[in-house]
Amino acid sequence: MKTKLTLLFTLFFGLSYAQSSFNNDQADQTSKLKFGAYGQIDYNQPLNTNTISNGELDIHRMVFLMGYSFSPKWELLTEIEIEHVKEVFVEQAYLSYKMSKYFNLKGGLLLIPMGYINEYHEPPVFFGVERPMLDSKVVPTTWREIGFGAFGRIPEFALKYQIYLVNGFLGYNGSAKFDSDDAYRGGRQKGAESVVRFPNLSAKIDYNGIRHLKVGVSGYFGKTQSSLFSNIADIDQSLMLQADSSVIAIRMLGLDAQYQNKGFQMRGQAIYSYNKNAEAYNAFGNTDLGKEIFGYYIEVAYDVLASSKTSTRLLPFVRYENFDTQYSLVEGASKNPKSHRKVLIAGISYYPTNELVLKADIAWLNNDYLASPDKSINMGIGFMF
Predict the structure, then answer these.
(1) What is the pLDDT of residue 28?
(2) Which CATH number is 49's domain given?
(3) Of 56, 140, 148, 139, nearest in space to 93 by CA
(4) What angle do CA 213, 216, 222 make, to 5 degrees?
């Protein structure tokens, strides 16, 4: 009898220990996993003079984040994006190795740290139903390429830095991918069977040593890629010259600043880009990219509920954008009257929580081609978690 009790006692505690170990392992695995998402649903209604236009309802994007910590040092992060219900992209997919607060490594499909919105582009983060046009046409958000590099913080000087060696835009693939309408947007490779020959350098420094203020300086330098560099014999000078004409060297600089004090917020951004070899590129590709590109915007907002005890926020805002994808022309080129755009947006954002926003705005777009500004009303829902 004593032996049977001993066996039952041992079996019971053995099973209890095994179940406890299983639950602990399961909890440990769960703590290593990360999951999140963001998305936006938009309504856009043009209000052009003497013209009747349909509005558009769109599930603009849904993005799902999944990450896993293999160890305290090794971490994987991925984001899968679905745009307009039917287009699927990988927005980010990188592995990071955390060494210290001062120096860490990252490699994979990376967001280019240019300006502010390209890295922080979730709908509750920016004002307006749509992202700023400067960040759509010039930067262009969401701009990501495959590469590797280092990042970290230097808290003694209130600095954060990033520096990456990345693949560049595909400027030519049977036809020129850059023009004065969309600037570089058509050349994003997004990590999809990317053509690579010339590595590009991307870097950013953020400074937050002044109370309520954050300032960032970005830089991007390198040559664009071209499909023409394929099986060219070294001695075939005519094909080499042709391929060289399909490439430009981009020198892009960005400055962004954010000021926030209680309910008041102000943001600004400026982007300047110089395109070396643009004259040969335009002639070869029969396009009209500007030799220089320049643009900026500034926006202000105020939380009218800031003085109350509620956790909700209500922020009227206004933003002015001014950018030109043909800020200066190559010799002999004609000005595209649509290249210099001015945008005024006024609207309101209501935040029931920090992760959820209901938006509405009215936008006026003007350029040298339009007799009067194009006007639209926009409404949207945005979330992130």
Answers:
(1) 58
(2) 2.40.160.10
(3) 148
(4) 175
